[in-house]
Every structure is written in structure tokens, then in C-alpha cells.
Amino acid sequence: MTADQGELLEKARISLTAAKLLLEGTLPDFAASRAYYVMFYVAQAFLEGEGMAFSRHSAVIAAFGRDFARLGRVPIEFHQYLIKAQEIRQSGDYGPPHAVTLNRTT
């Protein structure tokens, strides 16, 4: 594991802690954002292991799908979860207050 991968995984771990705290505080909009970043940082760590880095979220998601999920290196569901998490994060970050609930998004 590279130092950059380790840092990304540490950011993922911290984001998971933050997501849990936000969810316990009944702030699902903000918890969804942190939960997305857990997955995003892990995807970046996978790509970093292949010497790839991207500045755009869409590029990270696409490369993760192309180079890991599509090739069967990770279950395809992992890529699908990342895509769905980004959609929910967008609702939480840019939608109206309470766009994300514990059961669904609006």
C-alpha cells in the first residue's frame, strides 16, 4: 500500500465516523454526504494503487467502474453503490432541507 492510499483510507475511516455521528444526530442529509465520501475515498485508493488520480468525481467513478467493477476485480455492486451514493449526496448537499431521509431521497 502506498502512503497516498493509506491517507485516503484514513480519510474514509474518519468520514465513516462523521457519517455515523451525523446520523445519530438525525442529520441524514449531511450523513449521506460523509457516507458517499467513504466510498469515494476507497475508490480513489483503488485507483491510486494503479497509478491513477483524477480531479473530478465523475472521472473517479467512471475509472473505478471501468478498471475494477467491469473487469470483475470488485463486485459490480460496489460501483453501483458508489453511483447511487453520489446521487443521494447531491440531493443532500444541493436539494432542499431534509431531502434525504432514513428511508428514501426526494
The topology string of helices and strands comes to HHHH
Class computed from helices, strands and strand pairing: mainly alpha
Uncertain ranges:
none
Helical stretch tally: 4
Described by the principal axes of the CA atoms, the overall outline is: globular
State mean pLDDT (0 to 100 scale): 94
End-to-end gap: 39 Å
Q: How many structural domains are formed by the residues?
A: 1
The total count of strands amounts to: 0
Instruction: Tell me the strand percentage band.
Output: under 5%
From the alpha carbons, calculate the radius of gyration and give it in angstroms. 14 Å
What topology emerges from the helices and strands here?
Layout: H1 3-24, H2 28-49, H3 57-69, H4 76-94
Helix pairs in contact: 1-2, 2-3, 2-4, 3-4
